[in-house]
Design brief:
Blueprint (H helix, E strand, L loop, with lengths): L1 H37 L5 H31 L4 E3 L1 H32 L2 H30 L4 H4 L3 H19 L5 H17 L1 H16 L10 E3 L1 H14 L5 H20 L4 H29 L4 H10 L1 E2 L10 H18 L5 E5 L6 E4 L7 E5 H6 L2 H16 L2 H22 L5 H35 L2 H17 L9 H4 L15 H11 L6 H10 L2
Parallel strand pairs: 1-2, 4-6
Antiparallel strand pairs: 3-4, 5-6
Organism: Natronococcus amylolyticus DSM 10524
Cofactor: Zn(2+)
GO molecular function: metal ion binding; metalloendopeptidase activity
Length: 542
């Protein structure tokens, strides 16, 4: 387990390091280029201050756009994403893509001087093949997902599409004719950042005009859904700052901004602007990437575990009720009472109870500490089991909490879950994507390795809680049989959550290399020992 944890942490460090480089390169390049151009009409210190201010406002606009899109996706039933935010995020994704290419071009001369000519040629060919292949795979993946039931989560508004076309057109003009065309994008980002700080109402007006121009009369637009965008996120941040204790937060933010600009002005008188550009890129990347990394860690240990976030996206996770189920308020209260009673017998705090609208029987425990753990039950398992079988399953999940298995598995699965979330949130990048895929694979393997050894211990602890090994054996047999009868279209289990469930999902036969793929899935990434073996162990004890 220690080796798996160390490997996961190493991969997380590599991903974060790559993200720092990809963000720092365009920021440093912009500051360098902007100062070099503005120095013809302005003093270098003044040009540096303007460049640093533009970078800060642009990153602020990108951060607000990411926040607004995340909020819109989490509340897709009631709000629509802001087309301005969609355009900003797409612009950021293409800047990262350009940054990865710039890094590759910068490395090529060094590699050419160090590597033998045949090796260097093979490396160039491999790089070109890799870019073409992974781009095709990513496009195919997006197309497949767009054909799935989650297509409504992936659709972009017509106004957002128009903005994306505009971004691509300006980018092409910048590369093909003159870099000065890129000033249009920079000015737009700076204007969005200033508007969010000084006049968020102006952003509302611009968004409404854009939507009215592009989507007027569109039958696909839901009139009952409100837009949630950059302006709303800016207002929420401002309101939060006003509620914060201590000196007036807005004044503190203004003082920090003034100190940043004055520091840039003073630094220019000491260092060459080239060195200052590199320093600004490093600081900006550390603040932006570091903020997201710290936010992910805070969310993990604050109860918003990535595993639960994935369940929310995949299975309509709900805290209090299950839509369109046979679970009524009285039955839900009985489940809570049973969980509380069994938690007392297991000597653990009563965990939170979450229900997921999924017909496939699922029960799992997630959380880093017993006091903040969560038991997730699906509609299928509530309807499939009753009495002693249902109590045995709850005792099994509480045993995972008591034995700290849930904490270990949650921690080991976090890198893979965060990598999957980041891929969808920040867009495709040929550098970060394979690293994210590798992190996800290692995380899955680590979870599988640890989970296989803890199921027997959880079974034994559940028997100690209930004193009924036959009840747990019967529950395992019922669930295994029920899963085998499920149609393939109803098997919604995901690899990231399968390790937490009480029984693994059944194997779906593959058209090609079925035996090999089953060996890998059940061997290397298998999260549970054979259910029949677990049932035999329990029946021996009856």
């Amino acid at each position: 387990m220690a080796l798996a944890s160390a490997l996961c942490l190493l991969l997380v460090g590599v991903v974060v390091g790559a993200g720092l480089v990809l963000v720092a390169v365009p920021v440093a390049g912009f500051v360098w280029y902007a100062v070099d151009v503005l120095a013809f009409v302005l003093p270098v210190p003044v040009a540096t201050v303007l460049a640093v201010a533009a970078v800060a406002l642009s990153l602020f606009a990108v951060e607000l756009a990411l926040r607004s899109l995340r909020t819109a996706r989490e509340n897709a039933d009631s709000v629509r994403s802001d087309p301005i935010a969609e355009g900003v995020v797409e612009l950021g994704a293409y800047v990262l893509l350009l940054s990865s290419l710039l890094v590759a071009l910068a490395v090529l001369p060094f590699a050419a001087g160090v590597l033998p000519a045949p090796v260097f040629a093979a490396l160039v060919v491999f790089g070109a093949f890799y870019l073409l292949t992974i781009s095709y795979v990513w496009a195919a993946r997006v197309w497949v997902r767009s054909r799935s039931d989650d297509a409504d989560r992936l659709e972009r508004s017509a106004a957002g599409d128009q903005l994306l076309v505009a971004v691509l057109a300006v980018g092409y003009m910048s590369l093909a004719y003159s870099e000065l065309f890129a000033v249009v994008l920079v000015v737009a980002l700076v204007a969005i950042g200033l508007g969010a700080i000084l006049a968020p109402g102006a952003l509302d007006v611009a968004r409404n005009r854009l939507v009215a121009y592009v989507e007027d009369g569109d039958e696909d637009v839901d009139p009952e859904k409100a837009y949630h965008g950059i302006a709303e996120e800016a207002r929420q941040i401002a309101a939060g700052l006003e509620r914060a204790p201590g000196p007036r937060p807005t004044l503190l933010v203004a003082l920090v901004g003034a100190a940043l600009l004055l520091g840039s002005y003073a630094a220019t008188t000491i260092w060459p602007f080239e060195a200052l550009a590199v320093a600004v890129g490093a600081v900006a990347a550390s603040a932006f990437v570091g903020g997201h990394f710290v936010g992910a860690i805070r969310g993990e240990f604050g109860g918003n575990a990535a595993v639960l976030r994935n369940l929310e996206l995949e299975g309509d996770l709900d805290r209090d009720s299950v839509a369109e189920t046979t679970v009524d308020d009285r039955e839900l209260a009985d489940i809570r009472t049973t969980v509380a009673r069994l938690a007392g017998q297991a000597d653990v705090p009563v965990p939170d109870l979450r229900l997921v609208d999924r017909r496939t029987p699922t029960a799992l425990a997630v959380g880093y500490r017993p006091a903040t753990s969560t038991i997730v039950l699906s509609r299928g398992i509530v309807n499939s089991l009753e009495g002693r079988e249902f109590e045995a399953v709850l005792a099994h999940e509480l045993a995972h909490v008591a034995n700290r298995d849930a904490a270990v598995l949650t921690a080991l699965s976090a890198p893979g879950s965060v990598a999957r979330t980041a891929t969808g949130r920040y867009g495709f990048n040929p550098v970060l994507e394979p690293l994210a895929m590798l992190t996800n694979a290692v995380s899955r393997a680590a979870v599988a390795f640890v989970a296989r050894g803890r199921e027997y211990a959880a079974d034994d602890a559940a028997v100690a809680i209930t004193g009924d090994p036959a009840g747990l054996a019967s529950a395992l047999e019922t669930l295994d049989t029920d899963l085998e009868r499920r149609p393939e279209s109803d098997l919604r289990e995901r690899d990231v959550t399968a390790a937490f469930s009480i029984v693994p999902p059944p194997w779906e036969e593959q058209r090609f290399f079925d035996r090999t793929r089953r060996l890998v899935a059940r061997g290397l990434f298998g999260t549970h020992p054979a259910t029949e073996r677990r049932i035999d162990r329990l029946r021996i004890r009856t």
